Amino acid sequence: MTTDYEKAISAYALVRNNVNHADFLLNSLESSGNKTSDRDGTYWKNTGSNSLETETTAYVLLTYSVKNDTVKGLPVLQWLVKQRNAYGGFYSSQDTVVGLQALTEFAKLIYSKVVDLTLAIKSKTGGVEKVESMLTLNSANHDVLQFVEFANKVDEVIVQANGSGLALVDINQFYNVKQDEKPPKYILNVTTLEEQANSYTAKVCAAFNIPNSKSNLAIIDVGVVSGFEPWLDQVAVSGNLKRKEEANGRLILYYDEIPSEEVCVYVPARRISAVSGVKPATVVVYSYYNPNERAMKEYLPSNLQSEGVCTSCPNCCSAANTVPLANCGIMP
C-alpha cells in the first residue's frame, strides 16, 4: 500500500469496522508530502488526476466523519465544497458519488435546524454597490435551495450575513475561453481481421500519449457493427487488462494502466441477425477518473461496407420470399 488513494480508501474501510483501526493510516496520510493546506482548505494533491485527488480527499473526509473529528474534517470539507462544478458534481461519476457521500456524512455532524440568518446579496460595478436580493434562512426553509441570478456583468459579488447558524453559499460564473487544441491523451488504432460473412475480429491498440509515462485506471469501450455481438468468452484477461463485461451490446475493458507503449486486445464478434446498410462502429478509450481524456475511432470491416440485404440474408431474396413493391409503398 503506497499511494494516498490506497491508504484513504483502506482507512475508511477499516474505520467502519472499528474507529481506532484506521489511526495508523490516518497518521500516514496526515504526514504525507501530498497533503496540502492553503486558503481553500486541506486536500491530498495528485498531479496526475483531479478526479483521483478529489476522491482521495473525500475518503479522508468520510474517515473523519466516522471518527466524529470535526476539527480536522472542517478544512477538508471546505476544500471539497470548492471543487464542485456548477451542477453540484465533480469531475467524473466515481468521484462525484464518493464526494457527495462525504459531504453528506460530514454535514450530519455539523447540521443544525437552529438557524436564523439574513443574507444580503450585492453586486458592485464601477465602484457602485447594488442590492440584488435579500435572502432569509430559518428553521422553516433551511433545506430549500434559494438562488439569485445576475442579469448583467458585475465586477464583484458581495455576500453579507447577519444572525446565527450555518449556510453554504455558492457563486457560479459561466464564460467561454478559447483554448489551443491539445493533443489527445491516448493514441488509438482499430483494424479488422478474419473478416467473414458471420464474424470478424477487431484488433484494438491503445497507448498513453505521453512518452515514458502511463495512465491511471483506463477503459476501452468497444462497439460492434449492427447485427453482431462481442464474443465475450474469447477475449483473454491478462496483463494490465483486469476485467471485462458486456453492456448494451458493447464490450467494456478495464485496464489498471495503459503505458506509452502500445497494448492490443483482440475482440471477436459474431453475427446474431441480418442487418443491411450497416454503419461504422466506434471504439473509445478514456481515463476512468477523467473521462475528458479520451480518443475515439470508427471502423467497419471491408466485407460489410457495401453489404445489401441479399448479402446478409440470401434467403430473403429468393423467389419464395419476394415482397411486392406495393407492400413497401412503391407503385410499379
From TrEMBL:
<dbReference type="InterPro" id="IPR008930">
    <property type="entry name" value="Terpenoid_cyclase/PrenylTrfase"/>
</dbReference>
<dbReference type="InterPro" id="IPR011626">
    <property type="entry name" value="Alpha-macroglobulin_TED"/>
</dbReference>
<feature type="domain" description="Alpha-macroglobulin receptor-binding">
    <location>
        <begin position="215"/>
        <end position="299"/>
    </location>
</feature>
<dbReference type="InterPro" id="IPR050473">
    <property type="entry name" value="A2M/Complement_sys"/>
</dbReference>
<keyword id="KW-0732">Signal</keyword>
<dbReference type="Pfam" id="PF07678">
    <property type="entry name" value="TED_complement"/>
</dbReference>
<dbReference type="InterPro" id="IPR009048">
    <property type="entry name" value="A-macroglobulin_rcpt-bd"/>
</dbReference>
<dbReference type="InterPro" id="IPR036595">
    <property type="entry name" value="A-macroglobulin_rcpt-bd_sf"/>
</dbReference>
<protein>
    <recommendedName>
        <fullName>Alpha-macroglobulin receptor-binding domain-containing protein</fullName>
    </recommendedName>
</protein>
<keyword id="KW-0882">Thioester bond</keyword>
<dbReference type="GO" id="GO:0005615">
    <property type="term" value="C:extracellular space"/>
</dbReference>
<dbReference type="Pfam" id="PF07677">
    <property type="entry name" value="A2M_recep"/>
</dbReference>
